[in-house]
Each structure stands twice: as structure tokens, then as C-alpha cells.
Amino acid sequence: MTETVKKLTIFDLQAKVDRGEKVFQVTAVDFPTAQLVDRAGIDCILIGDSLGMTALGYASTVPVTMDEMIHHAKAISRAARRAILVGDLPLGAYHASSADAVDNAMRMVKEGGADVVKLEGGEDFAPMAEAVVRAGIPVMAHIGLTPQLMSKLGGFKVQGKDASAGVQLLKDALAMEQAGCFAIVLEAIPDRVAQLITQRLRIPTIGIGAGPHCDGQNLVLHDMVGLFDRFTPKFVKKYGDCWSLISKALAEFQDDVRDGRFPQAEHSFTMKEDEYQALLQQLARD
Ligand code: KIV
């Protein structure tokens, strides 16, 4: 019998923050890892467009399409029994118009099974966020380093490092709160700027490379368990080294097969002696 698990809602997140508790969000890209994240008690599973790099091998998140996002979201939605499933809208899904934003947010919820959506951008994208919220889908905002716009930002760079950029980030955050977003991701910004934003917003701030003062923290599972070998951003803490673990298992598998240690009797299937003798007789006749 499957145990009944109560699904968290955006109101549970706000209540946590109001009680002074931290919010946990982890980016996962497939069914088994999402199951691990859900069962660990993480509040939100983000099916982030970073899957372009961690799961699909692209150099950035730029090429990721709605169809690719939905393909992965579907798998994760089967695992997110307790956690809120946040479906990222990729580059091009909402940039041209509010109508696109609503259409693609609807797809993410109806086809992908997400509970809510996330989109990158500040003031310029507040009308799109507002349209999605009005259509009935909760939106998580994402400001600071917004990897979809890395060409405009000049690469994966810390944002908001000078006073005027810090002021703009605060304006962006307030615009997204005003648009009705229920939470906001702050990526790669100075800790004190994140603190000022967190103090001025009612909605939860979820940091990734934004210091300890945010209401919650986000890490990408592939980064935190060492399953992404291209680079490790400064803001990542590695809690495990799955790359070494899996490499060791693959090397040992080859050694075992080569040296006759695998498979053993416990990994093999047997045939009754009389059937085997009958088989040999049939072969001898043919
Ligand atoms: O795609 C992602 O994983 C994200 C997080 C870095 C917030 O957007």
C-alpha cells in the first residue's frame, strides 16, 4: 500500500519563512534523483533549465526547448509526491509576449505536471510574470545571474557588484513581487545585496550564490553530489563525489568480468537437469 503524503503548497513555504524557518530547493532532472530529493524532505524540486548542461550535454542553458523541459518535468512529476514541483520556462518561452508566457506556463503545468513555474528576469519581464499569475499559475521569479541571458551579461558572472547594479536588483525584485510572484531566486549576487532584498520583500528569497541571509537555499543536485565534471561554481558545496564512485564501479565491473569474478552463481539463472539433457539430445538429433 502506498503511504499518503501531503503535498506542500506555496502557502506552506510562506508559513515556513514567517516562522523563521529556512526553505530548501534542489534542482533535479530525472525520476530517481527527484525521488531522492522528495524523500529527503526538500520543499521544492526545481526542474531547472540547467538540465541542458547537467543532463543533455549542452554548453549552456540557451538551446533548451519547451519540449525538452516537459519531457523531464513529466518524469519528475511522478516522483514529486510531497515537494512543490517548480517548472522552469526556458529561453524563448516567454520573452516575446505575455501570451507566450501564459501558453508555455500552461504547457508546463498541464503536460509537464509542474505545480508552479519559474522564469528568469526582472522589471522587463514583470508583465509576463503578472500575466501567468493572473492566468492562475503561481510564478517563482529569478534575478541576478540569469544564465539564459549570459551573452547579454558577458558570461556566468556575479551580478549587482556596484551600487547602481544593486539598486537595479532591488527594483527588479520589487517589480516581481508586485507582479504577484510567490518567491524569488537570487543567483550569484553579493551577500549584502541579497540581505537588503530579503529584508525588503515579503515573499521568500531563495539564494544560490547569494549568501546566508536569504530565506532559503537552492543547489543543483548534480553539483552538490559531484556528478558534473565540467566546472564547479564557487557557490557550490560538494556533499558527495558520485563521479569517483561511479567511475570506480565501472572500472571494478570490467576487472571482475575480465578476471571471472562476475557474474557468479547468484547472478545467473538455472535450468533443470532433465530439461538440459533433453536440450542436448535434441541438438544431437538436429
Ligand atoms: O536551472 C536551474 O537549476 C536554476 C537554478 C540555478 C536556480 O535555475
Task: Explain the overall architecture.
This protein is of the alpha/beta class and 286 residues long. The chain folds into two domains: 10-240, Phosphoenolpyruvate-binding domains (TIM Barrel, Alpha-Beta Barrel); 253-285, no CATH class. 42% of the residues lie in helices and 14% in strands. The chain is built from twelve helices and eight strands. It has an eight-stranded parallel barrel with strand order 1-2-3-4-5-6-7-8, surrounded by seven helices. α2 crosses α4, α5 packs across α6 and α8 (163-178) runs parallel beside α9 (191-200). Bound molecules: 3-methyl-2-oxobutanoic acid.
- Beta-strand residue percentage: 5-15%
The main sheet comes to: 8 strands, parallel, barrel
Task: Report how far the terminal alpha carbons are from each other.
Answer: 52 Å
Spatial ordering of strands, largest sheet: 1-2-3-4-5-6-7-8
SSE class = alpha/beta
* Helix run count: 12
Helix content: 40-55%
What is Rg?
24 Å
Mean pLDDT: 97
In CATH, the topology of the largest domain is named: TIM Barrel
Number of domains: 2
CATH architecture of the largest domain: Alpha-Beta Barrel
Low-confidence runs of at least 5 consecutive residues: none
**SSE sequence, one letter per element:** HEHEHHEHEHEHHEHEEHHH
Brief summary of the model shown:
This protein is of the alpha/beta class. The chain has 12 helices and 8 strands.
